[in-house]
Structure formats: structure tokens, C-alpha cells
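PROTEIN DESIGN WORKSHEET
SECTION A - STRUCTURE
LENGTH: 240
C-ALPHA CELLS:
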């Protein structure tokens, strides 16, 4: 479904991604893992179109994405939850969620699902009831965990085909980490949503991910089913 072929990326003069190859199957739940600074966030930003790639290609269902804007990638069905959440603190929860509505409307049309609501879908409040309670509060007044739920809700408004999450559990209390894991599992298992998750916490990665990709120095160095993530690989690429 997603193919990233021989991608290189440079920040100014520094090369971050090196001939990176990555394949993601439709309906999979893949954990991208690796130590700090190996280029995980950079890779996701390249996938989302927030950073240009120097060369190489990024394909979604065989169609080239790498020259398209971030907005057209969202329109193509990529939902993105950035590291650090990045919600709008001065806007209310409702206003944050409404940001994706124009893209939602266009996607529903593309998908032939125009009969569905063009407003924020109720499903989001079923997944995250707290967002309904907090609807008129400002984003900045929410706890870190609630902001993360808002960021995920906002990504789901566009009816994505692929959901990308960059360290959704960073700095979040354990009960919300559990809830976020449950939501990811549910979306993947019940709705067939393809999930790409950057995760440092091994327990969470094992619970939620079905596949892993290990990165080191801007490359993918190991890919397999999560069940095959060995102690040797952990020692080599994850232990600090
Ligand atoms: N805006 C930036 N300008 C220059 N270098 C950056 C920038 N953002 C990240 N980097 C560098 O790129 C490398 C990869 O960073 P990043 O993709 O954030 O890694 P990860 O998400 O795996 O921790 C790091 O060495 C980091 O210092
Ligand atoms: Mg990162």
C-alpha cells in the first residue's frame, strides 16, 4: 500500500535519511522503532509532505506522493498525529476537530460516501468520550493525554486510509496510554485502518504492533512480524 523507495533527505547540509526503503501492507499495524535521533520523525514528515525528500519515491497504492503538498496527501487519505501533538491551544476542542472538515467532505465524495455526515462524526466521541465533555474548552486547557486524544480525533475526521502516529504516548499518564492502545487496536482490527506508529516503549509496541521496522542512522535495518522481535535485535538497535 505504501512503498518508500531509496529515499534520501537532507536538513541543510546534514543527511538524515539514507537510501531508505520501507513497505507497508494494507490493513497492517506497523511499529517504527529505533533510538532517539535515527530519523523516525523525519521519515514520517517526509511521508506526510512536511519535509521534501532529496530523491527517491513515496507511493500510495502505486501513485506518487512525494511531489504532492501535505494537503493533497491528507486528501489521498493520510492522517497524521505529529510528535508533541501540535493541537491549536487557543481554539476549542470543537474548532480543532472542525479543521479537517473540508478534507472530510472532499474525501467522502471521492469515496462515494456522500450520505455520511459532513460534520464531526459521532464515532470520534464514541472512541474518545472526553472530547465530547470538553467540546467547548480550549485545546490548551486539556491535559497532555486529552490533547493526544484530540490530535488523534482530528486525524480521524478526514476518514483516513492510513493513520500515522508519532510517539503518541510520550509524557502521558498510563490510563490514557492504555485507552490510546485500545483505540488503535480497535481501528485496525474492526475498521481495517492501516496504522503506522512510531513507538519507543517496547511493551506498547508489542501490544499494539503486528509488524516492526527498526531504524538506525536514517535507514531501515530490520523488518519482520512483531512476534519475531528478538532480544538480539533489541540489544543491537533499541537498548540505550
Ligand atoms: N529541524 C531540524 N533541523 C536540523 N536537523 C534536525 C531537525 N530536526 C531533526 N534534526 C536532526 O535529524 C536527526 C533525526 O531526527 P528525528 O527524525 O527527529 O529523529 P527521531 O524521531 O528518530 O528521534 C537528528 O540528528 C536531529 O538532530
Ligand atoms: Mg521523533
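SECTION B - SEQUENCE
RESIDUE ASSIGNMENT:
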Amino acid at each position: 500500500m505504501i512503498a518508500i523507495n531509496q529515499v534520501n533527505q537532507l536538513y541543510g547540509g546534514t543527511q538524515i535519511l539514507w537510501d531508505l526503503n520501507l513497505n507497508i501492507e494494507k490493513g497492517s499495524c506497523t511499529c517504527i522503532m529505533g533510538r532517539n535521533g535515527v530519523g523516525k520523525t523525519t521519515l514520517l514528515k517526509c511521508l506526510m509532505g512536511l519535509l521534501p525528500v532529496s530523491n527517491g519515491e513515496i507511493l500510495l497504492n502505486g501513485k506518487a506522493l512525494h511531489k504532492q503538498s501535505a494537503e493533497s496527501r491528507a486528501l489521498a487519505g493520510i492522517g497524521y498525529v505529529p510528535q508533541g501533538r501540535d493541537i491549536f491551544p487557543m481554539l476549542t476542542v470543537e474548532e480543532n476537530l472542525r479543521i479537517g472538515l473540508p478534507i472530510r467532505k472532499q474525501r467522502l465524495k471521492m469515496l462515494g460516501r456522500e450520505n455520511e455526515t459532513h460534520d464531526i462524526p459521532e464515532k470520534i466521541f464514541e472512541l474518545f468520550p472526553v472530547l465530547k465533555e470538553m467540546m467547548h474548552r480550549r485545546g490548551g486547557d486539556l491535559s497532555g493525554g486529552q490533547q493526544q486524544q484530540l490530535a488523534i480525533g482530528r486525524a480521524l475526521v478526514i476518514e483516513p486510509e492510513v493513520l500515522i502516529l508519532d510517539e503518541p504516548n510520550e509524557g502521558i499518564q498510563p490510563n490514557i496510554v492504555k485507552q490510546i492502545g485500545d483505540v488503535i487496536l480497535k481501528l485496525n482490527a474492526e475498521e481495517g485502518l492501516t496504522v503506522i506508529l512510531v513507538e519507543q516503549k517496547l511493551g506498547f509496541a508489542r501490544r499494539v504492533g503486528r509488524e516492526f521496522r527498526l531504524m538506525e542512522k536514517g535507514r531501515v535495518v530490520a523488518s519482520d512480524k512483531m512476534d519475531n522481535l528478538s532480544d538480539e535485535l533489541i540489544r543491537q538497535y533499541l537498548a540505550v
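SECTION C - NOTES
The pocket of adenosine-5'-diphosphate (ligand 1) is lined by residues 11, 16, 34, 36-42 (CB under 6 Å).
The mean pLDDT is 96.
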